[in-house]
From TrEMBL:
SMART domains: WD40. It comes from the Eukaryota. CDD domains: WD40. WD repeats lie at residues 64-106, 107-148, 149-190, 213-247. It holds the Pfam family Beta-prop_WDR5. Residues 343-359, 367-393 have a biased composition (Basic and acidic residues). The lineage of its organism: Eukaryota, Fungi, Dikarya, Ascomycota, Saccharomycotina. It comes from Candida tropicalis (strain ATCC MYA-3404 / T1). InterPro entries: Beta-prop_WDR5-like, WD40/YVTN_repeat-like_dom_sf, WD40_PAC1, WD40_repeat_CS, WD40_repeat_dom_sf, WD40_rpt. This is WDR5-like beta-propeller domain-containing protein. Residues 343-393 are annotated as: Disordered. Keywords: Repeat, WD repeat.
Amino acid sequence: MGLPLLESTNQIDDLFKKRYSISLPSTQLTSIKISPNGENLAVSASNGKIYIYNLADGELITTLTGHTKGVSEIVYSPINSNILASCSDDLTVRLWNTKTNKCIKIFKKHTYHITTLKFVQKGNILISGSSDETITIWDITSNKILTTLAAHSDPVSSITLTPDDTIIISASYDGLMRLFDLETSQCLKTLTNSTSHYGTATASTNDVLNFPISKVEISPNGQFILSSSLDGKLRLWNYMENKVYKTYQGWEKAKICEKFNCDVKFITKLKKNPLIVSGSDNTGLLIWDVQSKDIVFRLTPEIAGKDAILGVDIYDQGAVLCCCSRDGVITVLDLNEKYIKKAENEEKEQQELDPREGYDETPAETPRTETPREESPGNDTPRDNITRDDTPI
């Protein structure tokens, strides 16, 4: 399926259509999330407020107040669209009921800015990462801390979970990604640019300088990790094999996550044309074709916001896409129906030719080693059934 190619123009390609934009002047927006039921849109800001909108039309429903400093990230409970969690520079994690507009719980443990949050799928456990270099796992039912992990040697910038909720994946400014067993807290594996041969060697030594990693996201089938680093590149990792399969970047003057922690997401609505989307420092919103690495869509700064796009989220596998910027612009877009229909028709035709054809959506086998495995001709380590030219996500 051919997608329109866009490199650097002032035109919005027709892959996505803008539904609406909202402007909050003099407000630095930090994170954006769509509720699991697709009804509401939550946006956090550096002024400590959280704005809740009707996703359909952008009408403001309520504003949540309580944090005394900037809100770093927000996340909805996977099982209750009225429950929202937030983390802040005020060193608290808060749980909100967006229906009653009340803060229902406050959690305190971290000693420095809290940077990232993630719910497990059952909604009973919340995981936070902090600039104090730790990860804390909270039982929100009992209000107890289950454990605190001394995860990194620099601030924890991002966390995600495998689809089966067994593995925490953390990223840090120390240039490392670590995989922890959620139940045992054991570190199963450490991924670094040096193991994937993407590090930068110093002039006087053989040491490798690992660029700080700002965001991580797991693919829907659990086989790949997408990371963004402050060298301005996105990398698609097969973490079972300790390999980077593809690298994505902008053009020469495009600043992709070189200064700010910009969200990255997978878009799988187009079936066999998986996409990745990222915010940027100065280039608007960018979308790449996973296979070709071409930029197939750009929402320019004139529309998405002229400052950095920090928050990005999707709904219905990317049928709805939203983003927010540091200069107070919220944008909601819809995937063009003609591309959705085309993808569905092509998949149907292929299945009629070969009913077995399709992507393997079986989650990757959980890694159980603490250090990366060395490759050898006799290595019988299970491997994902992929090639560089055909990368299911």
